[in-house]
Design goal:
It contains 13 helices and 19 strands. It folds into two domains: about 5-60 and about 100-305, BirA Bifunctional Protein, domain 2; about 310-405, Rossmann fold (3-Layer(aba) Sandwich), CATH 3.40.50. α1 (about 5-15) crosses α9 (about 295-305) and α6 (about 160-180) packs parallel to α7 (about 200-225). The protein has about 425 residues and is an alpha+beta fold. It binds zinc ion. Zinc ion (ZN) binds next to loops.
């Protein structure tokens, strides 16, 4: 296999994103083709979130300093946060900070109404921006940035629902990686160990870990993945599932997490009214599904070396008439693709060889050539580089196959 090209080079050569020293490092600019990919990923994130019964919410990227004191972020993560902003001569209580996470806002959305046990679980989803004060020396491409756009869901549920909700989150995260074609090597159940570094009672932890273990097993059997228990790897505020990938160099990375949290509901005094008429504490679950737009696009560019599956490709079909005589047939094909919301481009200029080479360089997903013979037969010669396939097919079949691959978010177009 040839050496793989880094996502930064692919991003530049394919016009996905740019950086400009005047804008600041770690603050990439998404170019039009990058915006197409990101919009498709956002649509996927929303489809998966809505399928799981998530409700859309919006919250501001700025919050009062006190919000992040309450959440504990300032105590734990202040080194990774941008300095607070003070407006004029107001006192420090009015200082604003760029948020390092979306959870505190979502906790306040939960707290915005009185909640009953009968309406739980509540699941809030937002494609939200959050910030990391990375130093300019360490930022890089899309993989390490200062503003992160995360597909972020927070579930608020009763303790007896936590296992099922964690399983739902885990299933969605695995499904997202499967659709994207990104690998998952195994799932880690990150648990407490015998030290006293953990918030909450041992009984609370034992119950939550047992619920996760049971829920995880059922999901992973279906997915054909292994669940590996890792004592001591939990966050201090609750156990979690981590989707793990190993790279060729022995490094391991968590690409998605489903995190149980006993801490934020305490800190924000979140409650619901139980069947007994008393106030109870909900469990909060942080779940990532598609992940951050930046990290996923970097991973996709490298995984596919720029030749993204058709549903993600900025140009899904490049249409090349051999000569001017086929312009009407080519234009009619482009119209018919576009009327099916397929991203098609007509490329009439230059020699055919140069245009084919350019379409390959740009990783246009399908290359459709119309010569005299094809035009006469209402056909088109299609080259599908990803599938290693070239065939002359009726125009209608090309349109149908492109629509099928797009709607099914297929890794490859299914040729007969
Ligand atoms: Zn969260």
């Amino acid at each position: 296999m040839n050496a793989t090209i880094d996502h930064r080079d692919l991003g530049r050569d394919l016009g996905i994103f740019a950086t400009d020293p005047l804008a600041g490092s770690g603050l990439p600019l998404w170019l039009p083709d990058g915006a197409v990919i990101r919009a498709e990923l956002q649509r996927l994130a929303k489809d998966l979130a809505h399928r799981d019964g998530c409700l859309d919410v919006y919250s501001p990227v700025l919050g009062k300093r006190a919000l992040f004191e309450r959440s504990g972020h300032l105590a734990k993560f202040s080194d990774d946060m941008f300095p607070a902003m003070r407006l004029g001569e107001q006192d420090a209580d009015d200082e604003l900070v760029l948020r390092p996470a979306n959870c505190p806002h979502h906790a306040l959305i939960y707290a915005a109404a009185s909640r009953s046990y009968r309406e739980l679980p509540l699941r809030f989803n937002e494609l939200a921006a959050m910030f990391r004060a990375e130093r300019s020396g360490v930022v890089s491409g899309l993989s390490r940035v200062r503003q992160i756009h995360l597909d972020d869901t927070h579930v608020f549920c009763r303790p007896d629902q936590a296992g099922e909700e964690a399983a739902r989150g885990l299933r969605a995260a695995i499904e997202a990686q499967r659709i994207l074609g990104l690998p998952v090597d195994y799932v880690r159940l990150s648990m407490r160990d015998d030290s006293d570094a953990w918030l909450g009672s041992p009984e609370q932890w034992r119950g939550a870990e047992a619920a996760l273990r049971e829920a995880g097993r059922a999901v992973l059997e279906d997915a054909g993945l292994q669940l590996i228990e890792a004592p001591g790897e939990a966050a201090f505020y609750g156990p979690k599932f981590d989707l793990q990938v190993r790279d060729g160099r022995g490094h391991e990375e968590s690409i998605a997490t489903v995190q149980l949290d006993f801490n934020l509901p305490e800190r924000f005094d979140l409650t619901y009214h139980g069947a007994d008429g008393e106030r109870h504490r909900p469990v909060m679950i942080h779940r990532g599904t598609v992940g951050s737009m930046e990290r996923v696009v970097a991973a996709l560019l490298e995984r596919y070396q720029g030749r993204l599956p058709l549903w993600l490709a900025p140009v899904q079909v490049a249409v090349l008439p051999v000569s001017e005589a086929q312009d009407p047939a080519a234009r009619s094909l482009v119209d018919s693709l576009r009327s099916n919301a397929i991203r098609a481009e007509l490329r009439p200029d230059d020699s055919l060889g140069a245009r084919v080479a350019e379409a390959r360089r740009r990783r246009d997903h399908l290359i459709a050539v119309i010569g005299e013979r094809e035009a006469a037969a209402d056909a088109v010669q299609v080259t599908d580089v990803a599938a290693g396939h070239r065939e002359t097919v009726p125009v209608k079949m090309l349109v149908d196959k492109a629509v099928e691959a797009r709607d099914g978010r297929l890794h490859l177009v299914r040729w007969p």
